[in-house]
Batch of 2 targets.
Target 1
Amino acid sequence: MNFICPSCSSTIGKHIFSSAERLHGREKNTHNIVRCSSCELVSLSPLSKKEDYKIHYPANYISHRPALNVATPLSLRKETCVHRVRSFVWSSWVMEQWGWPSRVLGHSLSVFRWFRARPIGFFGKERTLLDIGCGAGVFLRQQAQLGWSVFGLEPSYDMVESCRKKGLDVRQGFSISQGWTEKKFDVISLNQVFEHVDNPREVLMDVYESLQLGGVLVMNLPNWRSGAAQIFRSYWYNLDTPRHNLLVTPGTLRAMVVESGFQIKGMYTLSSMKGWTGSIEYWLRDFLGIHVSEGAISGSKFLNLLLKPMVKVLDLLYLGDNLHVIAKKK
């Protein structure tokens, strides 16, 4: 096995296990999951490349599905108390605009889920946002309705055309330089995108150079350290081979972000029930050979209610399914 770490370029790694394509069931070939012996990043080997995009991302891929919805006109939403509090937390804690009493209060409020799930879910007049891997543009439309000037980068031609029909400024490509060369952004987001790239260091440097001084990177992606990942291993729903090239832990992601010049303001996990119920479906279907119709497990209200307390505890222990990072350009 010829292994090259996508983060540190080391050629020495330990094979952990192999996993098959499970989401679409198009092939039974196994994919190697390897831990780098130098930086400890876990990754797919060999990596999925940009040339394979059309093969691995069919029209019914999850982030593409909303493109089928009929577009509705963009209109500003009414500002609520939650919007104002989120704005206060962002300005006081992340941007450090006020004195220490406000920063302490902002930091205290930042631990609540209503902020962590949508840290920039507030009115952003005169603020600019670039969403990398914007898919069908759902997140861009949400932020546009809050007054943000939004821009998107997306590799899928069909998704780009769909976004443009909805009035969104979206460019096709894999790097920011393919869409914008001079523009600097207040916020750049990567929502469930970073795990797909084959050049993490280059992506982070590209983001850093494209942010204004004091600009912020907002990112979320699957957490390899999560309880579900460690229990289900190759049957973990968020493993999603061969689309996910990178499997990060809080430690490996922190190292890459900090070494790229960012100051990490917040790192936390927020779990989705799908990470557990989807993994159970895969395990029953592919390991035990039990026929399970799609959605039979994830749609179970009883199972979701049963798992919810455990999932909340795991988030407190940084063992949740999805790892979130808020990092500021110094």
Target 2
Amino acid sequence: MSSISSWVVLGLVGENYWAERWLASKSACEILRWTPRFCGAPINRMRFPFLRTVLSVVALASASASAQTPQPAAPKQNDHVGKLAEGLTATQTVVYKKVADSELRLHILNPEGWQAADKRPCFITIHGGGWTNGGPQRMYPFADHYAKLGLVGISVQYRLHSAKTQTTVFDCVKDARSAVRYVRAHAAELGVDPGKIIVSGGSAGGHLAVATAIFDGVDEAGEETKVSPVPNALVLLFPVIDTSTEGYGNAKIGERWKELSPAHNVRAGLPPTITFHGTGDTVTPFNGVKAFHDAMLKGGNRSELVVNDGGAHGYLMRTQPLYDECLAKTDAFLASLGMVSRR
């Protein structure tokens, strides 16, 4: 219930019938528009009791609203994956990049028996949240699953898009590419095989995952670019894949949207990719991911599209059966590439 609605309900207790009828017929915005018409006289001298009630309620509502600072919505994590994440912790965190006074970290979940001298496949996962919210812990369950299969699991922290800090989606892309570069450059310290790096992500994190392979040149100024950020396989979960007005993110990216639209930048030589998407997704519409998949195949790339009929955005995070199905199909895909052992 909105602040105004709450105050209307409270203000009507004990007040007269006509005030109740008038308020019930108006939206909050309509009520506020009426306020200036009665501002010429003190409320306690007004002729009609119901108007005194109305303006008393509006005054309280306005004071309440102005006293509250809007906060960004917290990501919903009460789904199956969110509950799994609550019980997980990283083995260690490593700073992979410093930007101004900020340190960006890799949250690493090492497998049992891990040693720095190992050369294990690595599963890197990137959280979503419209590039504007969320955090690495959201994707711990995916990193943990692959750590249990003997891989090094990593969840990435990146700068969040913000007009206040002037952080753009281009900056988010730069961070994702920096993260993969760091893992490959420090493979000998992390116990990772630099030729077996998998990058995955959900929603905006899926966009950043594919960005590591596709957006050449979107790199941090001064960063050593001799080490490739291109992974050896991609696992995309309901990704932002089309940033045109028909997809998601166009307003956040702005006029340069096409530079960061995977569906509009497919070429030959991209990593083998498996994508999970629901036909009922109204956030990142299915048509975009279908266009991406078709373009991948046309370009001679390996692309598998797992379709959930009617699935909404984030569907595979919500229940254990859908989550387990995603992992099983991802395992089979990665086993075909020699990244995990067949079970």
